[in-house]
Write a structure and sequence with these properties.
globular; disordered N terminus; alpha/beta; eight-stranded mixed beta sheet; about 50% helix
């Protein structure tokens, strides 16, 4: 009965304008600029009129708030343990981008209590109604817990550099996810590119490997060049897209966001199964 009521509620939500698309931003290893991509990509979408929220899921090691120059008072953890409301843990940077800091002490979804998980579902259900995109900035690498959460989202954006080890790690991550969910949509971005040909080669190699070995098509969003503006923006704790809008890396980020929005318009966002899959993760962990 509860499932029927829930299905009806979700159907009504879709009829009212659709649910937010959930996107996990991942990398095969650390140090590839994943969080920097997340914050600047989010701002680029926001500048295109999209309502975006970033959820920092690199629990205990998250740095989204540092990159945005905000010192959050509360985190996702405070909401889940019932000490704060959802509104209290949603932060906004000076440019209007909303985000939720991860906090510390939450190892995985499956380690949370039933009450905490119910609060998580309630939060994401509310966020899906209020935003166009929910971006999950995931921790580097792959663990069983993070993979299960990634599987729940609608789409995955994979960040890699042109280094062979980074490309190999990115492929391993994508392969692992694909074997768990063959229908998952992947988009690829090559970061910290020193030469144009290297950037194109890196994403093309990833795309080719997925097609050849897993019979899986992936979408290339583009590449971001190595640019001094990135490090300067990190030190200033501001998004490079806004601090240096004419820098080469900012122009490429704009192109990536344009490509993403164009592709997204061609798809049906109403079919999101994020919450249903997320509940399946919790139930599986209780078996």
């Amino acid at each position: 009965m509860r499932d029927q009521a829930e299905a009806l509620r979700m159907k009504m939500l879709k009829a009212q304008g659709g649910l937010a698309k959930s996107i996990a931003i991942v990398s095969g290893k650390g140090g590839v600029g994943k969080s920097n991509f997340s914050t600047n990509f989010a701002h680029s979408l926001r500048l295109r009129g999209k309502n975006v929220i970033v959820v920092d899921m690199d629990i205990g090691m998250g740095n989204i708030h540092i990159l945005l120059g905000v010192a959050p008072t509360y985190s996702l953890k405070d909401y889940l343990i019932g000490q704060q409301s959802l509104e209290s843990v949603i932060n906004t940077d000076e440019h209007g981008l909303t985000f939720i800091s991860g906090g510390s002490g939450l190892d995985s979804v499956l380690d949370w209590s039933e009450d905490m998980f119910e609060r998580l579902i309630a939060a994401f259900e509310q966020l899906q109604r209020e935003y166009d995109f929910i971006l999950f900035d995931m921790g580097a690498g792959a663990t069983q817990r993070s993979i299960e959460l990634i599987i729940a989202v609608d789409e995955v954006i994979v960040i890699s550099t042109t280094e062979p080890t980074s490309i190999t790690d990115a492929y391993s991550m994508m392969k692992f996810i694909c074997l768990k969910d063959p229908d998952k949509k992947f988009s690829i971005v090559s970061n910290r590119v020193t030469r144009l040909n290297d950037g194109n080669d890196a994403v093309t190699r990833l795309q080719y490997a997925m097609r050849k070995f897993l019979d899986k098509e992936t979408f290339i969003l583009g590449f971001l060049p190595e640019d001094d503006a990135v490090q300067k923006a990190v030190v200033a704790q501001k998004p490079f897209l806004l601090l240096y809008p004419n820098a080469p890396v900012s122009k490429r980020m704009t192109a990536i966001a344009n490509e993403f929005v164009k592709t997204d318009r061609e798809e049906d966002k109403q079919g999101t199964g994020f919450l249903k899959k997320l509940k399946g993760i919790f139930l599986k962990g209780r078996e």
